[in-house]
Amino acid sequence: MILSMDEIVNAICLHMAERKDVQPTDVLVELSWDEDTGYTAEVTINGRSQYLIEANMIEAIMRYLYTEYGIRAYREQVTLDLDEEIIAIVNV
């Protein structure tokens, strides 16, 4: 199973909205990849920004897979990859 960049952004929005007790529409997410830092997401909520590292992004994806698809994926089954955009590959 492959999750598109839009689905990854949705996963992070839902995850952060629940953690910060805000609406998912209040969460802005920008994904990026850099040789030095790897995959990161800049999350902005109510004007405050924070960066998520790859492990945090995968945690959000795992939660999204369970709540949206009923798939219980483990950390080892989810990898991020760079195609024309950032995608998540889920081996279930």
UniProtKB/TrEMBL annotation:
InterPro entries, sorted: Uncharacterised_YxcD
Domain of life the protein comes from: Bacteria
One Pfam family per UniProt: DUF2653
Protein name: DUF2653 family protein
